[in-house]
Amino acid sequence: MGLVLHPTRDVTEVVGIIERWATRHHKSLFVRAEDKHRVPASVEPVPEKDVAVRADALISIGGDGTMLGALRSAVLDPKPVLGVHLGRLGFLVEIEPPALPEALSRLLSKDFTIESHACLACDVCGDDVVAFNDIALVRQPGSGFVTATLAVDGQQYGYYRADAVVVSTPIGSTAYSYAAGGPLISPAADAVVVTPSAPMAGISRSVVLSGDERIRLELEPHSSAVVVEMDGLVFRDAADEGAVDISYRRNAGLVVRFDPLRYQERNQLKMSLLDLPFLPEQLKALLPKELQNPNEQEIPPRC
């Protein structure tokens, strides 16, 4: 199994659980060489490109960003990815650390289902990249607006003049596109949504397209320099010309699910919480006192 670690969070406890389980079951663990100082000596460090190649399954330890990185690393030969939650929100990640030993045993016995994910295969000015959530053209602060034309299957559709233009998968529709006012797309749909953020002119609403249609965003000569983001990561900085060609690739990522219905219900709750205008501390204050501090036992009154 290959371990994909959150770049900054402390993963010691979770890696320890996995390492002890792997030792008992005589399973090999791999991690990219850059992370060898963060794992026990029994975990074999290998070049980053070989982690997914040599593993039968990947274990993502972090949040959604780490999970997306694990999916991208295996896009040429998709492997099942089990997500262990160490993030803040975690729409993609299902397992909490206390449930990890049982999850690993179920993974070994193939007692799970696979949730298939599509990705966006993108040609960014000649460079090939993939995105499981979204690809975005984003304005640089203080440099004007993103001005780009949209073509679908070679036919001109219109143009954007906005702070950003976000192209997302159905799973990615809950991320940047949603924050920009885009619709929620069912994970079961083969669709791509193009959403402008803070549009000033041109197309001002989301456009939902078929997964079979090819999309091209081309910067206009008078556009400001833009940042190209892939799943929230900067892929190209200060691009002032060129085009992005985008196609939809089905079954590009395989996510391990143990309880799909419970996972779906939990995500519905998380989505509803995103629309509440409260800080976490304010939400906590709405709970009954016995739930605000569950570790504190109430002291009975003295007679």
Structure description:
The chain is of the alpha+beta class and 303 residues long. It folds into two domains: 2-111, Rossmann fold; 119-250, Tumour Suppressor Smad4, CATH 2.60.200. It is 22% helix and 36% strand. It has eight helices and 18 strands. The strands form two sheets. Strands 1, 2, 3, 4, 5, 6, 7, 9, 10, 13, 15 and 18 form a twelve-stranded mixed beta sheet that branches. A hairpin with a 2-residue loop joins strand 6 and strand 7. It is globular, with a radius of gyration of 22 Å.
Notable traits:
18 strands, 8 helices, 12-stranded mixed β-sheet, single chain, Tumour Suppressor Smad4, 2 domains, 6-stranded antiparallel β-sheet, 303 residues, alpha+beta
Would you kindly provide a brief summary of this structure?
By secondary structure, this protein is an alpha+beta fold. It contains eight helices and 18 strands. The active site is at 64 (proton acceptor).
